[in-house]
Amino acid sequence: MLANYMPVLIFLCIGAIMGTVLIAVGWFLGPRRPDAEKNSPYECGFEAFEDARMQFDVRYYLIAILFIIFDLEIAFFFPWAVALREIGAAGFWAMMIFLLVLVVGFIYEWRKGALEWD
Amino acid sequence: MFEFLRIYVFTPLAGALVPPAVEMNVVYTLDILAKIVVILVPLVLSVAYLSLAERKIIGWMQVRRGPNRVTFFGIPWLRGWGQPIADVFKLIFKEIIVPSGADKRLFIIAPILSLAPSIAAWAVIPFDDGMALADINAGLLYILALTSLAVYGIIIAGWASNSKYAFLGAMRSVAQIVAYEIAMGFALVGVLVAAGSLNLGDIVRAQSGSVLHWFWIPLLPLFGVYFISGVAETNRAPFDVAEGESEIVAGFHVEYGGMGFSLFFLAEYANMILISALASILFWGGWLSPLQGIPVLGESSLIWLLAKTSFFLFLFLWFRATFPRYRYDQIMRLGWKVFLPITIVWIGGGGK
Fold first, then answer.
1. Nearest by CB to B112, which of A19, A64, A99?
2. Are the C-beta atoms of residues A12 and B120 closer than 8 Å to each other?
C-alpha cells in the first residue's frame, strides 16, 4: 500500500534536484560581473525610493483567511464525495447542513463587503 | 523499452555492483528513475516546443510569421524550429543577478520551489490504462496539494527580490491563485461525486462508453469553471494582471534573469500542460477514444490523451491572442462571486 507512494517521493526529489542543478549550471556557466547599478532593484530607471518591504492592502490578508476556511471545506468535501454512494440520504443531508452553515457565512462576508475590490 | 532496460542493463549492472540483499531495492529504484526520465524528457521538450507553438500561433493570428530564422543544419523548411534550443542556450549563459537588498538564499530557492511541484505532479497522471508512474488511490488529492504548493515559490520570489514590482506582483498573483483554487477544488468535488473515486485511472474508467458518457455532459458548468480557473491558476492571459507589462512590468519574477527566470518559465508551462491533461482526464475521457466500439479508431490509447491535451493547450494560446486583460477587481469578482456560488449550487443539486 505505502509502497505505491515511493515513486511519488522519488519524483519529488528529482524535481528538486532538477531545479537545483539547472540553477547551478546557470550560476557556473554564466558570467558574474556585478556592479552597484546592475544590482539595484528595478524601478523604471529611477533610484529606489524606499524599502520594498512596505505596507500592503489588508484585503490580501482577508482573502488569505477566507481561503483557509473554504479550502478546509473542500478537504471535508473530498472524502464525502467519494463515499457518497455508500452513505446514502443521511450522509448527503448531513453534509448539506454543513454546507448551509458555510453558505450563511459566505453571504455574511459578501454583504459585509469583504469580497469588494475597488 | 522498460523491459529491455530492466533485463539487459539494470539487473546485470546491479548484480555486478551490489550484494544481493540491496539488489532488489536498487533495481526497483533504477526502474522508477528510468520511468521518471521517460516522463520528464518529453515534458521538458513539450515545454520548449509549446513556447515555439505559442509564438507561431499568436503570430499567425496577428497575420505575422512568428520565429522564422533559427533552423537546424541550414534546412530551409525547418525555419523557426531551432528557436527553443537557441533560447535554452542563451538562458544558460546569461548572468544570474542577485539584487542588492535581496534575501539571497530565498531568492535562489524560490524558482526551485516553484518548479519541483509542477514537475512532481506528473507522477500520478495516467497516460494509458494502467500506465501511471504511481497508481495511488489519493491521486486527485495529491494533484490538488501540489498545485497549492506553487503559491510558495511565487510569494517567496516576490518577497526575496526586494523590488516593489515583484512584491506587488506576488501579492496579486497569490491572492488570485488562492481565490481560483477554491473554485477549482469545488469543481473537482463534482467529478468525485460522478466517479466515486480519487484515483485518476478509475475516474477515466468510470467514463468509458462513448463521448456521451464522458463527464463533460453531466458536469458542463463545472468543466467551464475548472478550465477557466486553470487559466487563472497558471496566471495566463486574460488573467495575467500579475505580470501585466503595462503596470508592474513582469510581476513577481521581474528581478530574475537567466536560469532563475527559465525555471519560472518551465514551471508555468509545465503547469499549463498539466491543467490541460487534467481537463482531458477528468472531463473528456482521458485515453478513451471518442469513437469507442468502432474497430481500430475506437481503441483507447495514449494518442487520444495527447490529442485532447494539445487541443486544450491550443485554447490557452487562443485565449491569449483573443481576449483583452481583465481588471483585477473583475478577476476577484469572477472568482468569488460567480464561480463559487455556481459550484456550490451544482454540488448541492448534482450530489442529490
1. A19
2. yes
Q: Per residue in B113-155, pLDDT tens?
A: 999 999 999 988 998 887 888 888 888 889 988 888 888 888 8
Position B76, amino acid: P
Per CB-CB distance under 8 Å, the chain A contacts of B102 are: 41
**Residue B240 contacts residue B297 (beta carbons within 8 Å):** no
Long-range Cβ pairs for the range A42-46 (8 Å, 24+): A42/B99, A42/B163, A42/B165, A42/B249, A42/B254, A42/B255, A43/B163, A43/B164, A43/B165, A44/B249
Q: How far is C-alpha B341 from the chain's CA centre?
A: 26
Chain A, nearest residue to B151 by Cα: A64
Contact A30 B92 (CB under 8 A): yes
Mutate one of A14, A95, A97, A107 to test the B interface: name it (highest B CB count within 10 A). A14
Cβ neighbours for B243, distance < 8 A, ≥ 6 positions apart = B169, B173, B235, B249, B250, B251, B252, B253
Nearest CA among B162, B106, B109 for reference residue A41: B162
3-state secondary structure B176-235: HHHHHHHHHHHHHHHHHHHHCCCCHHHHHHCCCCCHHHCCCCCCHHHHHHHHHHHHHHCC
Q: Give ∠ CA B109-B114-B116 in degrees, rounded to 5.
A: 90
- Rounded to two decimals, the ipTM of the complex is 0.87
Residues 74-103 of A with CB under 8 A from B: 74, 77-78, 81-82, 84-85, 92, 95-96, 99, 103
CA A77 to chain centre: 18
Query: Whole-structure pTM over 0.95, yes or no?
Result: no
Domains annotated on chain A, with CATH: 2-112 (1.20.58)
Q: What cell does B65 get?
A: 510569421
According to DSSP, residue B126 is labeled -
